[in-house]
Amino acid sequence: MPAQSGEPLVVVDHVNKHFGELHVLKDITTTIHRGEVVVVIGPSGSGKSTLCRAINRLETIDDGTITIDGKLLPEEGSGLAKLRADVGMVFQSFNLFAHKTILENVTLGPRRVRKISKAEADKHAMELLDRVGIANQASKMPAQLSGGQQQRVAIARSLAMDPKIILLDEPTSALDPEMINEVLDVMVQLAKDGMTMLVVSHEMGFARKAADRVLFMADGEIVEEAEPEQFFTNPQSPRAQDFLSKILTH
């Protein structure tokens, strides 16, 4: 395990999850430290997205515990709403409000949840849109933007809540190939800036460049976790070796 300077921010302890007969998370235990970038990789159906969604309780768990910043994940109600304000989420599909401008999409959460004034929210949103390279699109509607631009808006919207951690669930998988890098570049910069991130991704180049640690999942289990260089050059488990041999040769 790599040495971590940050304190534990997310602690997943012996978590299990079933969908009917399917055991999708099998006794998952891992810790994400403050300021750490963890990239979760593995074949389809291995439980990666379910783990990501369980951390902000978009999926319930059957047993085990998840704590965020020392607090147990709330079941429901105002505690859950507060937790979700502290945990940013970026999905495959951008989930922007189609009838609101880009600026309105980014300011909605801070104004409603954090009760920030319109002027302050607008100023912060413009800074974030500038940070992700699309400040000049602020007055447009989502449909007027490319997929890559929309995903960068979704990242800015997540950052606007000043979250403790951002969860990104395959953020580039719905994008055309030429748009993937513009989103990955933003994510690499966030990692450099010290944002705590859990990223489910098929982008091995991003994992190598930006991750502090790679979690390799298969069949609902964390099969291996290691620093990227170690994982990609010397995977320990036959399952990881097989997975990498398939994807790195294409």
UniProtKB/TrEMBL annotation:
One of its GO terms (molecular function) is ATP binding. Residues 10-244 form the ABC transporter domain. Pfam families: ABC_tran (PF00005). Its EC number is 7.4.2.1. It is a peripheral membrane protein. PROSITE patterns: ABC_TRANSPORTER_1, ABC_TRANSPORTER_2. It catalyses: a polar amino acid(out) + ATP + H2O = a polar amino acid(in) + ADP + phosphate + H(+). One of its GO terms (cellular component) is plasma membrane. SMART domains: AAA. The keyword Lipid biosynthesis does not apply. Its main location: membrane. InterPro entries: AAA+_ATPase, ABC_ATPase_HisP-typ, ABC_transporter-like_ATP-bd, ABC_transporter-like_CS, MetN_ABC_transporter-like, P-loop_NTPase. Gene3D superfamilies: P-loop containing nucleotide triphosphate hydrolases. Keywords: Amino-acid transport, ATP-binding, Cell membrane, Membrane, Nucleotide-binding, Transport. It is found in: Cell membrane. Belongs to the ABC transporter superfamily. This is ABC-type polar-amino-acid transporter. It comes from Rhodoglobus vestalii.
